[in-house]
Amino acid sequence: MTSERMTHLRSLESESIEILREVAASFDRPVMMYSIGKDSSVLLHLARKAFYPSRIPFPLLHVNTTWKFKEMIAFRDRMAEQHGFKLISHTNQDGVEQGINPFDHGSSRFTDIMKTQALRQALNAGQYDAAIGGARRDEEKSRAKERIFSHRNASHAWDPKNQRPELWRVFNTRLNPGESMRVFPISNWTELDVWTYIYSENIELPSLYFAKKRPVVDRSGTLIMIDDDRFRFEPGEKPREEMVRFRTLGDYPLTGAIRSDAATLPEIIMEMQASRTSEREGRLIDSDSVGSMEKKKQEGYF
Amino acid sequence: MSMAANLTPDTDIGLWLEQQTNKSLLRFLTCGSVDDGKSTLIGRLLYDSQLILDDQLASLKKESHNRMVGDEGIDFSLLVDGLVAEREQGITIDVAYRFFSTDKRKFIVADTPGHEQYTRNMATGASNADLALLLIDARKGVLTQTRRHSFILSLIGVKHVVLVVNKIDLVDYSQDVFDRIVAEYNEFAKELGFKSLTAVPVSALRGDNMVANSERTPWYKGSPLVPYLEQIDVSEDRTQQKMRFPVQWVNRPNLDFRGFSGTVASGSVKVGDEVLVAASRVPAVVARIVTMDGEQQAAIAGEAVTLVLDREIDISRGDVLSHAGETPEYSNQFQARVVWMAEEAAQPGRSYLLKVGSQVMPASITNLKFKTNVNTLEQSPARNLELNEVGTLTISTDKPIAFDPYSENGLTGGFILIDRISNKTLGAGTIDFGLRRGQNLTYQSFDVDRQVRSAMKGQTAKIVWFTGLSGSGKSTVANLLEKRLTAEGKHCYILDGDNVRHGLNKDLGFTETDRVENIRRVAEVAKLMADAGLIVLVSFISPFRNERRTAREIAGDVEFVEVYVNTSLEVAEKRDPKGLYAKARAGQLQNFTGISSPFEAPEHPDIVLKGGELEPSELADQLHDYLVR
Q1: Between the CA of residue B388 and those of B123, B413, B427, what are the distances in Å?
Q2: Do A144 and B97 make contact, defined as CB atoms within 8 angstroms?
Q3: If you placed Cys at A227, which of A45, A252, B254, B406 could pair as Cys (CB 3.0 to 4.6 Å)?
Q4: Ranges of chain A with pLDDT below 70
Q5: CB contact under 8 A, A188 and B261
């Protein structure tokens, strides 16, 4: 972007870059969460900009539940190669040994063990004092009040009633032993900002975001894609080829696709502006119970 | 009527996206309480900019049944307040950030609570806002809270204010009412230094003068609210100011490249400009302005870039670059206004960490001049600063820092204070001006120094700092130790709590504030005595960790031995040599350590003496052995 005046996207970009640099300069062992989705892709792009011509001075951490779309893993490895960042992939081996899967154990238990606990394991193992995430304040009510530098106690828990006041761009990055910080550089971005930024910066995304014929089954209105032969069909269920795409990426058996013909970025943005339903609709974990995001965050989920 | 252009199948998507990427950004805050219709106003803005999704809208209409609704049949406040649920979680009282946009602008709204106990939250929201919507209920007019909010806005330096006179429908769209409120407010706001002040009569509920001029207020000729927010120019200020570039991160990918990454805080910088480091005054010329998108010839306020200079000079994180002749102030003392944000009060003399830009260093409040009542703006003397209070004070930092008066530059003149033990953010301040005094007062150096003086006495000067409860045996042990050292030909002196309080510190009581000052003075005296070559034995309860740390810091390079006389409260109370515990128990003594005021045991004392278990002479021997080891 080479505009003379500061457009809103340029302001948001600068703010995020400043936050990323503050993390690199203030913490001993920062790490950046990398989920391979669009927000992560924007974050990765911003981190490359923040430190250019240096490489990103911290590793990227992917919590792999082993149930991600195949394409996500291939995309992840290609990005690491292309941009020369250090990639750490962590899987909860206890969960793997116990055979934890989304079919037998339900989305909430599966997510707790393979995501929340796995994340805690990974953060403890790496002794990271700051973990950068791609959450935005427009996503969900409890996020609207979360700080950009969000303090976590020694057991990774968030205490919403006891947040540090955050003024100007002066961030309090100080920690006591065992404590850590979650940092959200794109807090002030909206979903539309993320998409228009991807468009104007030409940021590469996994093709799962774009409409294509894919094998899916329809489960009470949610379209689940058959990504490998571990999928468990219900009696009488058969995959059908449909033009679908994904609005968020996660574990394939838990991520609903939407019927769509939008195969390019402008088409996606157009469709999004017209459809007017919330982004997390396709994400099964959030609809488990009311206030579930709030609860997950207090337990250490991002 | 809606603000954002709908996407239809006919829309030129390329053009539309171009428009999206070229919007400008306005950050504003809303102040006013729920009763003023703040939630309804924000809800209306979200609704009008079509941010309410179809499913939400349907359920809203259902919920709005039997409520105060506008022409759309919706109670807009429901959109904003997760009300009951959120209140139960206790986070409603915090700043919430909300987002909406029109065709021309994107808006980030800091939604801040209005009550007095949330002054700190409002200050937080204001710190990143260019403009404030100040809500007034047309039926109630200018209230105490309106004045409080205005004062905080001016304190934090919000320059543009829109007085939103809401619920104009409930006063029959009366011009008289509106004019009266505006006149009263203008009179009050004269002193507050707002750059622009506009008043708009609206009904957030009915949509009057929100997006378009209302037919129900034909007498109002000004701009409706949303178009006004779309066009107001708040950006011109920062790019015209003096250039400041705080170095955030030194960019050093390899031996051939050394750049300084940061965000231009104000003004602009070009390739070829001569810049100065504020601290060292060393000049260099900007050789390149590097970004991943290519090199730039110039960078303006708000841009995050990496500067490469034409020569190797010493620069690190925290340094501030400026143009020659336009350097920031550089001093270790300044006057500031501080909003206190923590339960534990601000204590003059206590050591805090101060962060301004990317500079962090120990600092303390040296003189609390007065506090300002946020409702009446009256000034009154103060000994400390409680939660949500605003004080005018002087701060001194351990080393000089680069800064600007806050009125000239919000990013180099705003700071936070951090607790050195809990690391919590305790307060936020805005710098009024630097005090030259600190700069000119340098230390006189003499040829005869501490080493010479202690060598003459055949000893190493040191400070032995006793801490422990009243009656723990500090003074008894110190006395025995002094006798023994003196017998060995050493030169000692005991500073005893009670004795010093009869003289030097007789103006101090036993509140937390006075205890902090008590310890500071004693630590300074001990430092002077050690400088004279003496072994100084300080016998003070010194109950707070923070002050013992301060004492250690004041000692500087003088050896400092922290002795914890660990005698249990039961034993000390049983001894009660001065009858003080009995008095405290009877309620005749306030703030008595161990009874009505805490004793924070040292976490890492140099030596622990077990008070109740060994005889004082044995303890003195232990300590003697430790000191001569």
Answers
A1: 10, 20, 9
A2: yes
A3: A252
A4: 1-5, 140-142, 275-302
A5: no
Q: B102 CA to chain A: closest CA distance, Å? A: 12
Contact A5 B24 (CB under 8 A): yes
What proportion of chain B, given as a percentage, has pLDDT over 90? 46
Same fold across B13-234 and B450-628: yes
CATH of domain B238-323: 2.40.30.10
Rounded Cα–Cα distance for residues B482 and B624 (Å): 10
- Residue where the block lists tokens 């036993």: B510
**pLDDT of B438 above 50:** no
Q: Which residue has the higher pLDDT, B63 or B508?
A: B508
Q: How far is A55 from chain B (nearest CA, A)?
A: 7
**Chain B residues 351-370 within an 8 A CB cutoff of chain A:** 353, 355-358
Read off the amino acid at residue A184: F
- CA A10, distance to chain mean position in Å, is 22
Count Cα neighbours of B401 within 13 Å in the Cβ-side half-sphere. 30
Q: Is the per-residue pLDDT at B4 higher than 60? A: no
Would you call A49 an interface residue with chain B, using a CB distance cutoff of 8 Å? yes
Residue showing tokens 């961030």: A171
B293: chain A residues, CB-CB within 8 Å: 1-2, 49
pLDDT at B10: 64
Would you tell me which residues 158-217 of chain A have a C-beta closer than 8 angstroms to some C-beta of chain B?
160-161, 163-170, 172, 174-176, 187-188, 190, 192-193, 196-197, 199-200
Is the minimum CB–CB distance between B415 and chain A shorter than 8 Å? Answer: yes
Q: Which of A5, A169, A274 lies closest to B411 in CB terms?
A: A169
Option in B7, B355, B357 nearest A273 (CB): B7
Give me the active site residues of B, please: 542
Does A168 contact B86 at a Cβ distance shorter than 8 Å? no
The interface residues of chain B toward chain A in range 265-294, judged by CB-CB distance below 8 A, are 290-294
Domain range summary for chain B, segments of one domain joined by +: 13-234, 238-323, 329-437, 450-628
CATH class of B13-234: alpha beta
Predicted confidence (pLDDT) at residue B303 exceeds the cutoff of 90: yes
This complex has an ipTM of 0.88
- Model pLDDT for residues B142-175, shown as the tens digit of each residue: 988 888 889 889 999 898 999 999 999 999 999 9
Partner-chain contact A172 B90, CB within 8 Å: no
The domains found in chain A, sorted by start residue, are: 8-198+291-299 (3.40.50.620), 206-287 (no CATH)
Cβ-contact A8, A16 below 8 angstroms: no
Contact residues, chain B, for A200 at CB < 8 Å = 17, 21
pLDDT at B45 over 50: yes
DSSP, res A154: T
Name the band, by pLDDT with cuts 50, 70 and 90, for residue B68. low
CATH 3.40.50.300 fits B450-628, yes or no: yes
Residue B69 has pLDDT above 60, yes or no: yes
Q: Report whether pLDDT(B570) > 60.
A: yes
Whether residue B56 is predicted with pLDDT greater than 80 in this model: the reply is no
Residue of B nearest to A201 (CA): B293
Interface list for B 468-527 with A (CB within 8 A): none
Strand locations in B147-281 (E): 160-166, 196-201, 245-246, 249-254, 257-263, 268-270, 274-277
| Cα atoms in the 13 Å half-sphere on the side-chain side of B283 | 10
> Looking at chain A, which residue has its C-alpha nearest residue B128?
A168
Distance CA A225, CA A68 (A): 12
| CATH code for the domain defined by B329-437 | 2.40.30.10
